[in-house]
Amino acid sequence: MNESNASSHVETDTWTTLALWIYSIFPVIFLVVGIPGNLISLIIWLRRISSTPGSTSLFLSAMSVTNTYVILHGCARHWLLGLTNERIDLRVLLGCRGPVFVFTVISDLSSWLIILLCVERAICTWKPIQFKQICRLKYGGIALILVIFSLTAFNMHFFWTVETVESRCETVKRFRIFHIYWTYADFAVYSFLPLIVILVVNSSIILRLRHTQKCVKRDNSSKTTTISMPSENREPLQRTTRKTDGSARILRTVFCMATCHFALTMPVVIFFLCEDTFCVDASGQFIPQCNVLEKLTISLQIANHVTHFFIYSFTSSIFLSDLKKLIPCVAWLFRETN
Predict the structure, then answer these.
(1) For the chain, percent helix, then strand, then coil, each to nearest 5?
(2) Which residues pair with 170 in a beta bridge?
(3) Which of 24, 209, 251, 252 lies 20 to 30 angstroms, CA to CA, from 285?
(4) What is the extent of the structural domain holding 203?
(5) Tens digits of per-residue pLDDT, 98-111?
(6) Rounded distance between C-alpha atoms, residue 103 and residue 311, angstroms
(7) Mean predicted lDDT score pLDDT of the chain
(8) The whole model's pTM is what?
(9) Cα dihedral sign for 234, 236, 237, 243?
(10) 3-state class of 246 per DSSP?
(11) How many CA atoms lie within 13 A of 186 on its CB side?
(12) CA atoms within 13 A on the CB side of 150
């Protein structure tokens, strides 16, 4: 019996050590890679806001800001937990309610920014000629403000449903039942609802692009029609084709962002929805293996906010061109400061 208890204790210590190691190493990597990448992305997209049609650059600038905050907040907290054996929580030091509220709103906003990007791409694809009139920068700013206001109102309850209990942020007792139901609503807003909307919108974009490509091929194959078509009738078709091609290129970037977002954030959603079922043993104790799994899924969630710089670099020729122009400026500034 004693040997069994000793073996169990050693195994628990091993899993606990592994969990702390994850929080001691990964946050440093994410900070070193993610912060510079997102700051560079922010500079590039901010420069593009006034010179590009629509609100894509505005949304991507906002995405860079949300990414930077999530990485700073999440990695600083996790790194401190890893270094102090989970004795010091940054959220507790800052009062629990404010940090939990802001982090949740910003995380939700990162999902809904992808929705805004997809909706704008859909408008550009379905209404290419009217795109500049429909998707003005002013309207994009209004849409962004409405989304932020809605997410703020949705998460306002944290200011009275969360409290500090023994150096931890816990749900206030009288709101325990509310918290159980709200967890599903939160994950719906953060993951499930955006996933459905993005799938529907992107499917409509793909169908429209295929239809446009078929029309272009049919028009190109009909030489007689092309020759006899007046120039004033061909011009709208050519503008539509150019707009559609541009939308397809930007859609590639947005599609990669959406894919990475759900591939890297869905594990943490599934984990927290299922942890009470699979991670608590008969005695009511938390299974140590689940502690490691929790750290891994949360690290994947943070990693999602590190990937966007690399997605832009590999899928956006505009971003890559601006990045190449920016690198000599950064090198010159570095030489001047030294």
Answers:
(1) 85, 0, 15
(2) 163
(3) 24
(4) 2-337
(5) 999 999 999 999 99
(6) 23
(7) 82
(8) 0.84
(9) positive
(10) helix
(11) 23
(12) 13
